[in-house]
Amino acid sequence: MIVKCPNCNTKYNFDDSRLRDELKVRCTRCKHVFKLFVPDREELSRPFPLIETKNEEKHEHFEPVRGDFSKRKTEPVYAGESPDKRRRNRTTFIALSALLIFVLSLIFVLSRFDVINIPFISSQEEQTMIQQETEFIEEDVKDISLENIRQYFVSNDKIGQLFVIEGQAVNNFNVPKSMIKLKASLYSGEGSVVGEKVFLCGNVASLFQLQVSSKEEIESTLQSRLGILTTNKHVTPGGYTPFMVVFYNPSEEMQEFGLEVIEAREPTS
After folding, report:
1. What is the pLDDT of residue 154?
2. What stretch(es) of the chain map to CATH 2.60.40?
3. Considering the entire predicted model, what is its pTM?
4. Which residue blocks in 184-258 are alpha helix, DSSP H?
5. What are phi and psi of 138, to 5 degrees?
């Protein structure tokens, strides 16, 4: 009789005389174990039509199977990886692809900005920057000197003419100082004020930034809290903090400028 493996469809010529009430055999091709049952004797006496297929093979015999299979658990045998493993691999691949796309998108977005302000500032540091104005007298700022001062003009294609003042605020007190603030004023030939700015020390912009950046980008650099808290939060005795102030398209009446220290706080612990 012709017997076909239910797992791989391989056909075998099987000797009917070897049939008992129940027989377990193993496919020699895929190693699948299955049962053979004794068919009706009348059916055995009928001619059994053979069906040939192009892609199926016929084998002469099964590989015998020995042992007690009533307590043995058989597992399916797969060529290559099992479906569960392929599914896990596919899930891992999708997750890694999504992560890679996210990282590349983040890099692209960040690359669109010339200046990145880091907002990781403690509440205490933030409070130091926004505390209410205090009346400072000359004794509070008298030993803060302004050194290495220089002024120059820069041409910016987006804005026009920039007037830049930069230098260093040096702490000549015998105690640390913090949040040193200056006032820059522009004067006409008659001595009237034609421009004025109040700003904290701590930040400077490069010449390249002054030439190509927009007004918003330049101000973002000069007001960066990261720079202020790094160089102007705790200025030790003899130490200094840099400063820069920019006037955009200053008045043609400007003839001179002045700088004044207006605040020098005690550092907070």
Report:
1. 96
2. 127-265
3. 0.52
4. 207-212, 215-222, 225-231
5. -60, -35
